[in-house]
Records
---
Amino acid sequence: MAKTRALLTETEREQIAGEHGDSRKYQATSRVRGRIQEELESDVEVLKEHHPELLEELREVVCEESDERD
């Protein structure tokens, strides 16, 4: 089965990690920021209304990752 992306493509992961230079890092950061501000907010609203259990799973992953960094 092919691997799918969540928020970042494999190339964007590399670019944000600085593997393709500062210009590519900036471009990838901008694309991802747009997804977070535009698409992710819409996805959360759909999950909130139609599948709150799945939204809770998303929160657990995101919040757990955030807690591990602190």
---
Amino acid sequence: MLDNCLTDALSCGIPAVETFAAGLRQDEAAVKAALATPWSSGQAEGQVNKLKLIKRQMYGRANFDLLRRRVLLAA
């Protein structure tokens, strides 16, 4: 199924879709493994994104103690 979708996307004539499909084709083993496993790293990625957002809001003034305090207060 994935092979058919990628083949169709590579020949659809829309440059953005073709580029995306080519990238998926390069990492095809990783994409298939991600679709086959029952777990996800989405929760961890969300927490990392939240930390980066808080740190960016502090304009680079975040030492560990201040960042920890902001994270705990945001929860």
---
Amino acid sequence: MEHEYIIQNGDSLWEISKQFNVPVKDLLTWNNLKSSSLLKPGKKLVLHLPRPAKTPKKPEPKKFLSELEQLVKPNTSP
């Protein structure tokens, strides 16, 4: 997923790479930069970040409880 980051005063590629958990070499490639390039505050950097993982749905409380009751309910059959 493409994301834009606006460079702030004092930013470095290393700090940005750590913040977004991407390699510096990827930041350089995505933005056609060299390792000697200066970052100018206010300029945009393009980052290609992975899509956030979907969190699994929590079971519905009523359904979960009814299933649990079935498991622990004592068998009253003769």
---
Amino acid sequence: MMNNPFKMTSLGIQHVLAMYAGAVIVPLIIGGALGLTGEQLTYLVSIDILTSGIATILQVWRNKYFGIGLPIVLGCTFTAVAPIIAIGNSYGISAIYGAIIVSGVFVVVIGKYFGKLVRFFPPVVTGSVVTIIGITLIPVAMNNMAGGEGSADFGSLSNIALAFGTLVFIILLFKFSKGFVRSISILIGLIAGTIAGFMMGKVDFSAVGEASWFHMAKPFYFGMPTFEITPIITMILVAMVSLVESTGVYFALGDICEKKVEEKDLVKGYRAEGLASIIGGIFNSFPYTTYSQNVGLIQISGVRSNNVIYTAAVMLILLGFIPKIGALTTVIPNSVLGGAMVAMFGMVVASGIKMLSKVEFASQENLLIIACSVGMGLGVSVVPGLFSELPENLRILTENGIVAGSITAIFLNILFNEFKPKQKGTQILKESKAS
């Protein structure tokens, strides 16, 4: 179907561009929040791009054990950003990668049974969790808009102007452009903001000059992983929410490609995501999930060939071996990143609200689930010392806002929506009498 190398390459580049901003902004945010050096940040961006390519191949390559075989592009999930920053600040960077590896193994193991666990993650739970994650990310965006926490010019008018200028540019581009340009509006906004920042003297290219042209991926670049209970629970919850989101993407792509997605296909897709996270943990990258922006690009272009995605994956791998390209992204001023983050993190909140739109709001029980889980998640994030006097084994579930909110949502959903045997029996009896 796609034998023209030029067309194949062009379409592959489109997919790389569509996911590139989302892929590189995650390591930039996390690395900045954890105080990594320029060299470490360059490595983090480069290895993230490389492992995105490997993860994509694992998903597209359909075999006996893993890979759904649909034209899916995998990238690091935004859902993991806030949890990873929280883990890094509380337990250190080694605990991040221990938790990512364990969560990947967990996904591989439970992939076969996840269909049975999905019932415990209806929209009222996943929507609440994603909303909590999005809300906890907003302060990160605000700090960056001001120039980055601890910066000498924090809150200066030049930083605020650059941040809002970038945000307004992205909004206008999204409003007045169509098709592919619209799908990469964030990327174009970052480039335009960086050019403006350069004219204002806010761009330092020294990291690009110091970066090498080629490097090899190094397992455990940041040291051997450590395994802490709270980070592991956090990342497993993130992985479960990510799988629920991915399931929707699998079925959407199945419809677009006119392929029936069966249970065995889903299992292979889950395993591929689990393997991708394990590889991410080993090479000090991130958990990976399906990128919906690339699904939108497939709809726009009408090209549903797996070979195009293989081409994009190979490009990502090649880019990941060139640190100078990774270093280029590290020159983006914090205020420019902050402006783009407002749009991107706001979209995480919007995604959570969109999931919640499927919830039956006439049910007071559902309203209470959302109220308590979001309230608990936000409350623990704002007042982290709330449960400091609890025994250590209980603090595991309460010291992280995302974990506390997620567990609250899961527990209340089971209580109100699953644990209703008498009501269900009564309903069945009423229906049988009516018939």
